[in-house]
Amino acid sequence: xxLPISSSQFESALPVNRALHRFAVITAASTLALIGVGGLVTxxxxxxxxxxxxxxxxxxxFFFPVSKWAGGIFYEHTHRLAASAVGSLTSILALWLYGxxxxxxxxxxxxxxxxxxxxxxxARPQRWEDSLVxxxxxxxxxxxxxxxxxxxxxxxxxxxxxxxxxxxxxxxGVLGGLRVVLLEDQIGIFHALLAQLFFVLLCxxxxxxxxxxxxxxxxxxxxxxxxxxxxxERPPATDSSTALSGSPALTQAxxxxxxxxxxxxxxxxxxxxxxxxxxxxxxxxxxQHAGLAVPxxxxxxxxxxxxxxxxxxxxxNQLRMETVSVxxxxxxxxxxxxxxxxxxxxxxxxxxxxxxxxxxxxxxGHPVSKxxxxxxxxxxxxxxxxxxxxxxxxxxxxxxxxxxxxxLALALGAIACIVSFGEPVEIRLCEGExxxxxxxSQQHFATGxxxxxxxx
Length: 456
Fold this sequence. Notes:
Blueprint: E1 2-5, H1 18-43, H2 72-96, H3 103-123, H4 128-147, H5 156-182, H6 185-208, H7 211-219, H8 240-245, H9 252-255, H10 265-286, H11 310-323, H12 331-362, H13 367-391, H14 396-421, E2 425-428, H15 431-447, H16 449-455
Antiparallel strand pairs: 1-2
């Protein structure tokens, strides 16, 4: 009999923790909002409005007077506070994935942070704000350890992803601080790209903790009554040990699981990688602080492809200085801008091909087919926002919306890839197992919804 079995069937089937899933969704949504705040900081050019880190003009970040939140300081300081909130949410999510087994760690970590706060106050009493923050964090950890949910730990893969998310948010925070201290644009570019990957990771965690994903995983190990059972014929046993044991020899087809053809999967993965490369180009353009290298659209300095010789670049810079008085550009930046436009066209074409391929392969009702349609809408919106960014001379709100839509497009592509690659594989069962599966199928579908509820 051909029975679909998901790749994670051998992990214990734990009840769906809906509260954990909702919290994962909140964490992912908060990360998207943080990306938006960071986009506003870059679009308005106020990344250096607060020149020190981890303090804010000498204050502890959480005690900076509200009366001084003015101008660019408001955006940069808000960005730091939002990053702290996302870091806290990610830490809670990582601990929640460990369930009740996280209680001892939280208890000891809380005590350690309390001791650290006391030592800080004794060593530097003038920095009482830092000591107070440590005491509050330690007390929160210690108190939460007694009230922590008594749920079972999530599967080991989810726990590992939670740890990756925790360390990623720590690295992301350090990179943001180093960008301020070292004044390196390259760090800002890497900071922006890691934010995109971090958002994708949190979206994946939200998917893996969802009831839909758990139902799909469980349904993949249940036999379907509408599928005709197929019991493979066995050749006569020729091995002496097999003959003595009385067990017929298995063919190679029976020993090894067979996967369905890849279909649209490579196209989905390739398109998602193209989007990530496009986001890298966009981050490089934004963090070079040279303004718009090409100020017109759809043409580029009146041509399909602008001239990039030294005389032309000098002429472009003269026009830019006369009109908007911005920093001079280079031929490399003009070329980078044009590659960004070409990549946008290529991505639009490949996403349309993804829609066509998924609908032909899996039908219009398949989740990946539906995601592909949403993908097309996001890419169309992204192209429009890119054009509006140029035509509006890089207005901060439009440029930030452009960044957010790009993050959503990357995350949606990653989710589509996960769902498509997570399609059940086919395992051939022996005759005894096939009979047991048919019996289970008849029993399960006879009980209907009550049977399914009992299994869950």
